Amino acid sequence: MRRSKPITVTLGKQQHLLDERLQSGAYDSASEVVRAALRALCREEQVLDAVMRAKIQEALDDPRPDVPAEDVFAELRAYRAEKIKAEKVDP
């Protein structure tokens, strides 16, 4: 019994990437390319998840005192105002 079902995928601009892999002989079918791409996507997501978890843990473990949200947003507003001012000055 087949555990997968056929699907239709429109690749658009990425179609040439699939075609190149098939023409190179690296893959025998579009299905193999898509499966490989999904495996790579899963690996990438796992790495990003691990990096984010490490960054969050690093922040939680940071012994420095918290910065009040009002201070953070005030600094962001000032930074943005400077960027806008600089954009208006540059021709």
Write a concise keyword list for the protein shown above.
single chain, 91 residues, mainly alpha, 3 helices, 69% helix, 0% strand, elongated
How would you portray this structure in words?
There is one protein chain. This protein has 91 residues and is an all-alpha fold. It is 69% helix and 0% strand. It contains three helices and no strands. The protein is elongated. The termini are far apart.
Topology summary:
Layout: H1 15-24, H2 30-61, H3 69-89
Radius of gyration over C-alpha positions, nearest whole angstrom: 24 Å
Total count of domains: 1
Number of helices: 3
Molecular shape: elongated
Task: Please report the distance between the alpha carbons of the first and last residues.
Answer: 67 Å
- Low-pLDDT stretches are none
Overall average residue pLDDT? 93
State the assembly state of the protein chains. single chain
Largest sheet: none
Structural class label: mainly alpha
Q: How many beta-strand runs?
A: 0
Give the SSE string: HHH
- DSSP helix fraction: 55-70%
Tell me the β content: under 5%
Summed up, what is this model?
This protein is an all-alpha fold. The protein is built from 3 helices and no strands.
